[in-house]
Backbone:
């Protein structure tokens, strides 16, 4: 098994139709699998053609997402995040 | 002054909320029709599911408490069809008036 | 009253939402108007709309149960299902449209739970329409932060050594849980096994029935 690729979700908070949940902004996880490409919902939501983007399924530990409030730190949370919302760690 | 930080009302993950009530209901005919209209409009390329969600999100937080799921869907379908130019607000208004005059119940109003 | 072939549908013991006999609401008026305008403009037809309703009505958790039971009895199919959920469902003949499905498997050590915090994405093209609680503020808010408390409210208390994996359906994929096959079912047919698979067990909020 190869080493996991770690990524961080960008912390930016623009308004509008966005599929990156606020609770994951700034959190670091690893790529569980690569998906897509899929059209950018941030364009398609406004009647525009969506640029094709790579979508990643990113896995986070509950400890990373919720800190001390995590029910059980080693439980995990998976979410799909488009490439332009991720930065390398 | 506002303490708004950019997190919008529909972005609920992690919010504090009460117990999950195991609620469900059998869908009414009008709800199934709204559902079908959404599938057909998106299949035909009039707008996307992203457009459906965007218009619902833009309705603001109160809408989640004051309307049902398919109330919001038909409101959003209509918003997207107006934006797509499928019909005008004038045409919609006239049609809604005509529908309402047919009778006081859904069953009466839905039959021409 | 005009005859409508959907009026007799009453698939379970749940109450109908007020409909044909209640005062007409603004949003119902809009539904009728939008539907008739789409037909008048030539975008759709009454027959096409009825056919779409029938196609959605034909989808139910029983379809997902067949997929799960097949995965329990056919290791090669299980591997294909985990590799590409959509293709595996199509292989079984289910009309799932453009659904992009990821199947996640429960084991003795792992319990999967599905939610959509941003709206209410659900594998509807396999399981049919979603239950109200799945779309509720309570479930959407809490399933990602306190899944164990939420599961306890559904009557499932997980041992501390079982890992919970929550899946937030944030974008284009939909998820279905393959629950663990219960003990005491050796030699059972696929159809008999499918009868044990509940809708909630495929969302992760319930268990399969015990034989």
Residues:
């Amino acid at each position: 098994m190869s080493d996991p690729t770690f990524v961080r979700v960008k912390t930016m908070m623009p308004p509008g139709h966005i599929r990156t949940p606020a609770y994951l902004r700034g959190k670091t996880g690893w790529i569980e699998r690569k998906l897509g490409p899929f059209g950018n919902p941030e364009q398609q939501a406004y009647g525009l053609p969506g640029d094709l983007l790579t979508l990643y399924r990113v896995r986070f530990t509950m400890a990373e997402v919720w800190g001390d409030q995590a029910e059980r730190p080693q439980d995990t949370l998976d979410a799909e995040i488009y490439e332009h919302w991720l930065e390398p760690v | 002054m506002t303490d708004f930080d950019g997190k919008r009302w529909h972005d609920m993950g992690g919010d504090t909320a009460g117990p999950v009530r195991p609620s469900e209901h059998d869908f009414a005919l009008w709800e199934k029709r709204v559902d079908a209209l959404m599938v057909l409009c998106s299949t035909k390329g009039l707008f996307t599911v992203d457009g459906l969600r965007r218009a619902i999100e833009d309705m603001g937080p109160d809408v989640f408490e004051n309307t049902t799921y398919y109330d919001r869907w038909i409101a959003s379908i209509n918003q997207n069809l107006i934006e797509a130019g499928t019909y005008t607000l004038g045409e919609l208004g006239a049609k809604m008036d005509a529908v309402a005059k047919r009778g006081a119940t859904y069953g009466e109003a839905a039959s021409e | 009253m005009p005859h409508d072939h959907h009026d007799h549908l009453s698939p379970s013991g749940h109450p109908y939402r007020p409909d044909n006999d209640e005062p007409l609401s603004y949003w119902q008026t809009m539904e009728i108007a939008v539907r008739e305008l789409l037909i008048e403009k030539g975008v759709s037809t009454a027959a096409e709309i009825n056919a779409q309703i029938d196609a959605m009505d034909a989808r139910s958790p029983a379809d997902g149960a067949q997929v799960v039971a097949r995965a329990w009895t056919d290791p090669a199919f299980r591997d294909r299902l985990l590799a590409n959920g959509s293709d595996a469902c199509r292989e079984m003949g289910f009309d799932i449209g453009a659904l992009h499905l990821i199947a996640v498997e429960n084991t003795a050590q792992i319990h999967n739970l599905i939610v959509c915090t941003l709206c209410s994405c659900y594998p509807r093209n396999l399981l049919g329409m979603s239950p109200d609680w799945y779309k509720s503020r309570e479930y959407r808010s809490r399933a990602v932060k306190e899944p164990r408390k939420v599961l306890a409210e559904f009557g499932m208390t997980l041992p501390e050594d079982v890992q919970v994996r929550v899946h937030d359906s944030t974008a284009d994929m939909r998820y279905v849980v393959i629950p663990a096959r219960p003990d005491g079912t050796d030699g059972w047919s696929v159809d008999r096994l499918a009868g044990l698979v509940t809708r909630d067990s495929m969302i992760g909020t319930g268990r399969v029935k015990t034989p």
